[in-house]
């Protein structure tokens, strides 16, 4: 059996998955014997399939199950969250227009910022990879992670590898990547558990309030899941200013 070759070009941020010494190479050669799917070839370059939304082979769009042929020229494009490419063969269902997320255990600070902005963000610091993948599939949540490995599992259909390590930059990255500025609804979710907040009469939660809060505040909101109570104290203005600053940058 003779050795065959196919030639891959990766576009935009897909190049971030390559070591720095390989990022300036426009065309990468994939050597193979026998039958190989284009999906296997792509992941051999350390690019998770969840990051890919369009594959063009010699001018024709193909799916992940396409069997490579000798001398194929393959162009691989990242997920297009804000661009309609429906005439071509998209590699997953339509983008989630009201996206929900599940975050890995390393993204707790990002989870807090996302909940503050009103994004549906599931996070627990005790979730392992199988649990995260199961939640993603069953609840149709996008996995946000710094672990490339979890995104390579076949069961994962929606996932994104966070490029930044700073939580505030991560927040801006997610907002930009998933076109979320129009989805912001600040302080509509519980920062403790992600539950939705509802306005609650002061008398219903009066016994739970500190004395200084009873005296100075009349408007309150309560989490419909965990019961945590919120009011617009000085912390409210600081958090609101932070979200406004991050969204305007």
Description:
The protein has 249 residues and is of the alpha/beta class. It folds into three domains: 4-78, Ubiquitin-like (UB roll), CATH 3.10.20; 100-183; 197-248, no CATH class. The chain has eight helices and twelve strands. The protein has helices at 38-44, 108-116, 129-139, 148-151, 167-177, 202-205, 211-216, 234-248; strands at residues 4-10, 28-32, 52-57, 60-61, 73-78, 100-103, 120-122, 142-145, 159-161, 197-200, 220-223, 229-230. It has a five-stranded mixed sheet, with no helix packed on it. The longest helix is centred in the C-terminal third of the chain and has 15 residues, at 234-248. It is elongated, with a radius of gyration of 22 Å. The mean pLDDT is 90.
Write down how many β-strands occur, each being a DSSP E stretch of 2 or more residues: 12
Structural class: alpha/beta
Mean pLDDT: 90
Percent of residues in helices comes to 25-40%
| Strand order in the sheet with the most strands | 2-1-5-3-4
Query: Rough shape?
Result: elongated
Please report which band the strand proportion falls in: under 5%, 5-15%, 15-25%, 25-35%, 35-45% or over 45%. Answer: 15-25%
The structural domain count equals: 3
Terminus-to-terminus distance: 56 Å
Low-pLDDT residue spans: none
Count of alpha and pi helical runs: 8
Name the helix and strand elements from N-terminus to C-terminus, one letter apiece.
EEHEEEEHEHEHEHEHHEEH
CA radius of gyration is 22 Å
The profile of the biggest β sheet is:
5 strands, mixed
């Amino acid at each position: 059996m003779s050795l065959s070759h196919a030639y891959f070009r990766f576009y935009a941020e897909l190049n971030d998955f390559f070591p720095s010494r390989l990022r300036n190479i426009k065309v990468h050669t994939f050597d193979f014997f026998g039958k190989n799917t284009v999906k296997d070839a792509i992941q051999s370059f350390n690019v998770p399939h969840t990051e890919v939304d369009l594959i063009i082979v010699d001018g024709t769009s193909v799916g992940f199950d396409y069997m490579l042929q000798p001398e194929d020229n393959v162009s691989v494009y990242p997920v297009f969250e804000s661009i309609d490419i429906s005439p071509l063969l998209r590699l997953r269902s339509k983008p989630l227009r009201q996206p929900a997320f599940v975050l890995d255990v390393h993204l707790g600070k990002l989870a807090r910022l996302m909940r503050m902005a009103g994004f549906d963000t599931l996070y627990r610091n005790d979730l392992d990879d199988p649990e995260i993948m199961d939640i993603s599939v069953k609840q149709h949540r996008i996995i946000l992670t710094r672990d490339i490995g979890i995104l390579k599992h076949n069961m994962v259909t929606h996932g994104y590898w966070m490029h930044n390590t700073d939580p505030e930059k991560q927040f801006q990255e997610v907002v930009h990547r998933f076109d979320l500025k129009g989805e912001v609804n600040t302080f509509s979710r519980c920062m403790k558990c992600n539950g939705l907040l509802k306005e609650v009469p002061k008398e219903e939660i009066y016994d739970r309030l500190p004395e200084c809060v009873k005296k100075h505040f009349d408007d309150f909101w309560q989490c419909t899941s965990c019961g945590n109570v919120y009011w617009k104290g000085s912390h409210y203005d600081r958090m609101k200013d932070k979200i406004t600053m991050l969204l305007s940058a």
